[in-house]
Amino acid sequence: MKTDIILAGVGGQGILSIAAIIGVAAMDSNLQVKQAEVHGMSQRGGAVQSHMRISDSTIASDLIPLGKADLILSVEPMESLRYLPWLGPEGWLVTNSVPFVNIPDYPALDSIHDEIRHLPRHILIDADAMARDLKSARSSNIIMLGAASPFLNIPYQCLENGIKKIFGKKGEKVVESNISALAAGRQFAEQNK
Amino acid sequence: MQKLVLLGDEAIAQGAIDGGLSGIYAYPGTPSTEITEYVLNSKQARELNIHSEWTANEKTAMEAALGMSYAGKRSMTCMKHVGLNVAADPFMNSAMTGVNGGMLIVAADDPSMHSSQNEQDSRVYGNFALLPVLEPANQQECYDMAYEGLRLSEQFGIPVLIRLTTRLAHSRAVVCRRELIHQRSLSLPQSQNQFILLPAYARNRYKKLLALQPEMTKHAESSKYNEYIDGLDKSLGIVACGIAYNYLLENFENLQCPYPIVKIGQYPLPDELLTRLAQACSTLLVLEDGYPVVEDKLKGYYPQTIIVKGRLDGTLPRDGELNPDVVAVALGNQVRPGIKKPDLVANRPPELCSGCGHRDMFDALNEAMAEFIGNRAFSDIGCYTLGALAPYNSICSCVDMGASITMAKGAADAGLSPSVAVIGDSTFTHSGLTGLLDCVNSQSPVTIIISDNETTGMTGGQDSAAFQKLESMCAGIGVEPEHLHVVIPLKKNHEEMVSLFKQEFAYQGVSVIIARRECIQTLSRRKKAGKAE
Q1: Which residue of A has its CA nearest to B8?
Q2: Pairing mode of beta strands A122-125, A47-55
């Protein structure tokens, strides 16, 4: 078993916190993990990505080869498309539909959504609206994790435990709202995949 | 033993802590910052009373580490590759003095220049100084090499350089810890002349360093980090250095490479292992991140019938970091990218944070400079280097730490007016002070803007050595009080800043304008921490 994931977003959007939960969950499932992150200049509002590899056997490269990713998990729609050359023939693209516009030449959102909808395996989800419905606006990243959860090859329970571990310090309420967010994202993916 | 998920950087830090470290000194620099940060935040390091500190620059850091080694304790200094240029003087000469307590120097290289101005390869420095170099392939080796490197340094009596690259520095994996080694106690070197590089003593020390070289090679031959891994297919022999080994294995089913490999993790190069490879295979492929250091060495070393391939003959790109795909091409494997990136995807370069004080400073500077068509400010290394990009386009240089001030001086001497420097607070104390002294001593007509965000911002907000000291330092160096100003870079102060800049542009001597407002990143973290309490 091997899952190669490209996490994508804009510096400051918190893709590394998603990676942290997947990492803990994978370790819980006795899987090996390698995760290459971007630190430094790009973190200032630039395009950022993280290569995350999970396997039940030894992982060699910290980077995923082109055309080999099983999943692109993006918290921003244009950023999800940036890494398509890495997506494998059977890979899924899961992305938040809400743009982060900090450049003057940001393309028309409709055409971005169209590009995504043309992909054979995609989940396009308005995680921000869903988070507002759940009355926890800051949980959109966890909703995204939930939406990607069917493709991670990690038991769902382990992801829940990962949330408990990562958010445990912040109290029961924060843990609960994030677990609900995870479930909401999961449900959306199951209904729309 | 305990298992931890660590970045390569963090694994080095933990390895050094467990290896009996007593002190770490560093100036932050991507991709090395997380090493020192880890020690600073480590409860274990605090309990062990390990001295950890951000210093004014890499040179002062390395000298302090050498001083701790002189006193018999194990020390470490960490820097990005270009930081080793700043510390090159103590680096080269620490090879001459040797050490007392073990001393590790960590240089994190940045091939592909993710966050740097060049992709120089620190292994060249290791060779230059005649020091042993360790190059980890994975996070566990990061840990082990730091853990063992301190002892290796004592064994040879010279510093040991660990060289890694961005990819490993910033990639996480599980690391297994080893038993804690106790710190050494204070003990002075046996000879009080060891660290005195008077020519007469230095000549002796140099002979000792030269005499060590065969021993270092012998050690490298049997090092567990240098390994001959045989393969059935002798049509190609592969030399894989550091992280390149992973990219090699990635290209084979079940990570089984059919070709013989020499995996390199310790320098000087293991001659015998490489010769064995060259005897078995008539074509060698060298995979190394950074410069073609090993390839260059092997080319021409063996009989002409041996072909050496790598970055120099175009088998691999001459620049940029390696990855599984360029290695695949070098091996003759097919790369099958997924879907082409749609044309509509726009570039998203980094930018100054919204609300950042540098923004207000550049807005004012641009207006003040507008009448001097084509004239931009010399600048430096930090977040404000982003003033090079739209919408600001305010600066004309970013070369090395502190160069804004001295380049502005040289240009002023050539007749450029106004000649303006923009430098950050931490960069100013790193390498700007001496340049300012030059300006003052020759009364150069320069306007120096210190954009003071009270932190080392670009690397994530480490303490700035300049904190609350800038005015007194500038005055002490001799900047006249009437040409030393402090402004708060806020929109509401825009007109004030513009007229102040213009006024000082007109002055035919040294002016310093400190534009001071706390970094909004550290401010928001401070507020959050305050709330949590």
Answers
A1: A36
A2: unpaired
Report if residue A105 sits inside a domain: no
Query: Are the beta carbons of B348 and A45 separated by less than 8 Å?
Result: yes
Output the CA torsion sign for B428, B82, B223, B172.
positive
Kindly state whether residues B244 and B368 are assigned to the same domain: no
CB pairs under 8 A between A and B: 154
Closest-CA residue in chain A for B344? Answer: A107
Domain end marker among B222, B254, B275: B222
Chain A partners within 8 Å of B351 (Cβ): 44-46, 102
Q: State whether residue B528 sits within 8 Å of chain A by CB.
A: no
Domain for residue A106, yes or no?
no
The one-digit pLDDT tens for each residue of chain B (533 residues) are: 789 999 999 999 999 999 999 999 999 999 999 999 999 999 999 999 999 999 999 999 999 999 999 999 999 999 999 999 999 999 999 999 999 999 999 999 999 999 999 999 999 999 999 999 999 999 999 999 999 999 999 999 999 999 999 999 999 999 999 999 999 999 999 999 999 999 999 999 999 999 999 999 999 999 999 999 999 999 999 999 999 999 999 999 999 999 999 999 999 999 999 999 999 999 999 999 999 999 999 998 988 899 999 999 999 999 999 999 999 999 999 999 999 999 999 999 989 999 999 999 999 999 999 999 999 999 999 999 999 999 999 999 999 999 999 999 999 999 999 999 999 999 999 999 999 999 999 999 999 999 999 999 999 999 999 999 999 999 999 999 999 999 999 999 999 999 999 999 999 999 999 999 999 999 999 998 887 65
The DSSP output letter for B428 is I
Nearest CA in chain B to A24: B5
Give me the number of domains chain B comprises: 3
Of A11, A40, A86, the CB nearest to B30: A40
DSSP codes joined into one string, B490-528: -GGGHHHHHHHHHHHHH-SSEEEEEEE---HHHHHHHHH
Question: Of B177, B203, B222, which closes a domain?
Answer: B222
Looking up residue B316, the CATH number of its domain turns out to be 3.40.50.920
CA distance A15 to A21: 10
- Asked if the Cβ–Cβ distance from A61 to B33 is below 8 Å, we say no
Kindly determine whether residue A41 and residue B115, on different chains, have CB atoms separated by under 8 Å. yes
